[in-house]
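Running log. JK asked me to keep both predictions on one page so they can be read side by side. First protein, sequence followed by its tokens:
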Amino acid sequence: MAKRLRAGDVIPEFRFDTPYHPQQSFYELLEGDKPVFLVFLRNFGHPLTRNYIMEYIKSAGSLRSARLVCVVQTKPQTISKAIPEGAMPYELMCDAEGVLYRFFAVPSEKSRMKCFSLKAMKIINEAKKQGFRPQAGEAWQLPLTLLVGPAGRVLLAHYGATLTDLPEDCAAMEELAADLLPTLPAEWLAAAPAAPVADSFSAAFGAAPAAPAKPAPAAPQADDETFETGFDTPLEAFDAPAPQQPEDGPQDLGALLEGFEAPAAPAAPAAPAAQPEAPKAPAVDLAALGFGTGN
């Protein structure tokens, strides 16, 4: 049975597909000294997803206290044909069938009045100028932001109230993680034995995860209703005009990926930088993915 996750819950082990490697272990993904942000978006061709994918690429160097994985409702081969392996500064988890979304009770909303924000209106309206056409009567998938520690321990679960109620960039994630992690019980961040690895999503999520043998200690900010995330808030009125701001034109994900460099350790002062080289041709053509809700 689907259930909303809360801080202190334990996500069972499962296997997932990336655009380049099938059947990866979720618990192996969580190994290391940094917890993982799981940000649940829509399919990779949706304008809202593309907006956040690009914002996270531009700000990837800001996230130091945690790692990032974006979950998208897209088939692996759709992404691998357009984006070469190693081009993204963070991982993508493909769940085209929406198994995780259903199991974690990620909601959708048909009323734009309830789920739209000014930012969402601006993104969607700009995408319409570029050819995006929402399907008539479609339900709008709301986001989910998780911070997960070793062996599947949920450190934070934030179910978005609007389409843009999620971290706006990696700097926002870093600020959230830096504030939250010191307040959590030490045992939540300690490595624990992994559960047996399931063969597939369906096997892993055929039933709700069993309750832990011992009750988990409550964290000071365990309630996602009281912990301040600083994310978006709903519209007060749907017909409120979006703020008019200068448009820079559509951003090119390929150009962002081409220019992305992993943060390096501070170096000694160097000679004045040389003149920048001419812009390189985009390495990724997102136009091939198209807009819409297809997988």
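And the second, directly underneath as requested:
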Amino acid sequence: MQLDLNLLTALDALLEEGSVAGAAARLHVTAPAMSRSLGRIRKVTGDQILVRTGRSMVPTTRALAMRAQVHVIVQQAHQLLSARQEFELPVLQRVFTVRWHDALTDACGTDLIAAVHRQAPGVQVRLSAEPGTDTPELRRGEVDLESASARPTLPDIRHRLIGRDRLVVAVRPGHPLTEGPVSVERYSAADHVTVSRRGRLRDPIDDALATLGHERRVVAAAPTAALAMRLALDTGLAVCLPDAVTHTARERLGLITVPLPVPMPATPLYLLWHQRHDDDLAHTWLRDLATETIRALFPPSTQ
């Protein structure tokens, strides 16, 4: 059986107004048009819906029984099809998956979770580790928000620049690089650890050193910044890290920061999401909250 769902809207108006004229005025249609809708509703339901009593009309027993349910269905349909849905944070129920670089998660994951829970206690957040290989999870809807150091190349992936982070060198107290100015020669002579989720023993710093006629000795690759900092503290290796994102973690471990003597551009930090979420009010709230949380790490001049 094929049904015209517009009849539900007409039925809701008829039951609320109790008259054809009132329902017609409410929906901005003519009285004859509403009368025809009532006729079709009677045919579909097999019930009179409204019956005349004197000069007024009253709902039938079946109409009274369905009135509340019809109203709820019509309101839900309007909300579902509304171009801009309203939502209230205190009662929002949603699960978000956020996939950030481990250093970024360590730096402000706690603040993000605390802010989400404070504003929307019904929202759950998964903090997901970065995979070893690139995956299309944003496009598949498996990840809601992602961090990256490069702008996306796919046209359906949106991005927002959060800030630019300069690179610094972290070493343990008493390391030779803490004694006097750090030259390219002294930096190259130290033993190093790289941060690479794919286990790469070479990164853009090595290319920059090569242009200056120098080469450093990389003795290890760590999959996370947290492990690389532990190696720097426990083994005396030097590690190059983004300054703002790892500042708190370096201080917590007691690492010493020295300048990188190799000219390197600042590393941009982007938030990425799929275009399907552009008009999603809950997602907009999350990415704005994430932006505010992360930007607190950066000096204003780098944002």
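Observation for JK regarding the second prediction: The mean pLDDT is 90.
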